[in-house]
Design a protein that fits this description.
six-stranded mixed sheet; alpha/beta; about 25% strand; about 25% helix; about 290 residues; 16 strands; Nitrilase/N-carbamoyl-D-aminoacid amidohydrolase
């Protein structure tokens, strides 16, 4: 029988301004997201990814220690536990990006993966951390990830995660493929005028080069008072041929749903033998320190 997976992505704007308390912002975003998860469940979604740092604004637009208040333990924090209940209720695999505290003062941009029975499967920590104008001061908030490139065996198949700035680096995307990923989710927060010209180039390229499905998310709207630009949405799925399956609007809260035919992975890889024809023994210079 064909292996068809009904997959979803959530893109959403932040309903609260930064003048509100971090607790109020977090609660508002969680409530909004729960409503969108319910909508996804009604559409038969089996695996669903939330957006980067889903329960807050993109606070990296400034450097203020107040945002450390949003950190939680993973998996022992309240949001992971809540999403375990939600996943079990809907029989849905969830990819949940949040702000992780390992110990006080050591924080990561993390995504927890929860299986359809509510079981916590594992986490991915964002590997590549930008620190650049305008308003992407992430090294103030996050330590570079140390999780490697895990692939999680779930009820719907083998799931990998890459987060936002990671998507500019093909090496990790290849590692996810070599580790067996069938679906790679890339939650992001990026604005027009900076990377929009890359938005529909890089991630389909990862899908083609590695022969897997990609689902990628961008949030929507402008977040005041920083106004670093418009988060331009356009979350989408593409297949292992790089073809777009579903693309969201530019400016609306939305659940993006697509059917992924996982049997296509073998068809594509049997045609384009990129894994067979790799020459890893020739690639040493790109992993040498300082190269």
């Amino acid at each position: 029988m064909p292996r068809i997976v009904r997959a979803g992505l959530i893109q959403a704007g932040n309903p609260k301004g930064p003048e509100c308390s971090t607790a109020d912002i977090k609660q508002a975003m969680i409530e909004k997201t729960l409503g969108l998860i319910d909508k996804a469940a009604k559409e038969g979604v089996q695996v669903l990814c939330l957006q980067e740092l889903f329960y807050g604004p993109y606070f990296c637009a400034e450097q203020q220690a107040r945002w450390y208040e949003l950190t939680e333990k993973v998996p022992d924090g309240p949001t992971t536990r809540l999403m375990q209940e939600v996943a079990k209720k809907h029989r849905m695999v969830l990819v949940v990006p949040l702000y992780e505290e390992e110990i006080t003062g050591v924080y990561y941009n993390t995504a927890a993966v929860i299986d359809a029975d509510g079981r916590y499967v594992g986490k991915y920590r964002k590997t590549h951390i930008p620190h650049c104008a305008p308003g992407f001061w992430e090294k103030f908030y996050f330590k570079p990830g140390n999780s490697g490139y895990p692939v999680f065996d779930t009820a719907v198949g083998k799931v990998g995660v890459y987060i936002c700035y990671d998507r500019h680096f093909p090496e990790g995307a290849r590692c996810l493929g070599l580790n067996g990923a069938e679906m790679v989710f890339i939650p992001s927060a990026t604005v027009a005028g900076l990377s929009e010209y890359l938005w529909k180039l890089e991630q389909p390229s990862h899908a083609v080069a590695n022969g897997y499905f990609v689902g990628t998310i961008n949030r929507v709207g402008r977040e005041m008072p920083w106004n670093i630009g418009e988060f331009y949405g356009q979350s989408y799925f593409c297949d292992p041929r790089g073809q777009f399956l579903k693309v969201a609007s530019r400016d609306q809260d939305e659940v993006v749903v697509a059917e992924l035919d996982l049997d296509l992975i073998q068809q594509v890889r049997n045609t384009w033998q990129f894994y067979r024809d790799r020459r890893p023994e020739m690639y040493g210079p790109i992993s040498d320190t300082g190269k």
